[in-house]
# Entry
Amino acid sequence: MELKYDKGKNQKERREFIHYYARWVKSVPNEVWSRQQAELIDSFIRNAKNFKMTTEKYLEMVAQRRIK
# Structure
């Protein structure tokens, strides 16, 4: 099965989401959106701790991608 990827459509959707989220952030108290951001960042950190790849291996993979 081949997945179709429309770069232009993807970029448009991302921009629309950014505008939507910016409007939301401006419309709610700082405590609300900052709590949500803290939860998101904390979940990234928890997930990173469960990721079994070393920092060195990850950086090696990134460097190899840049070469290609």
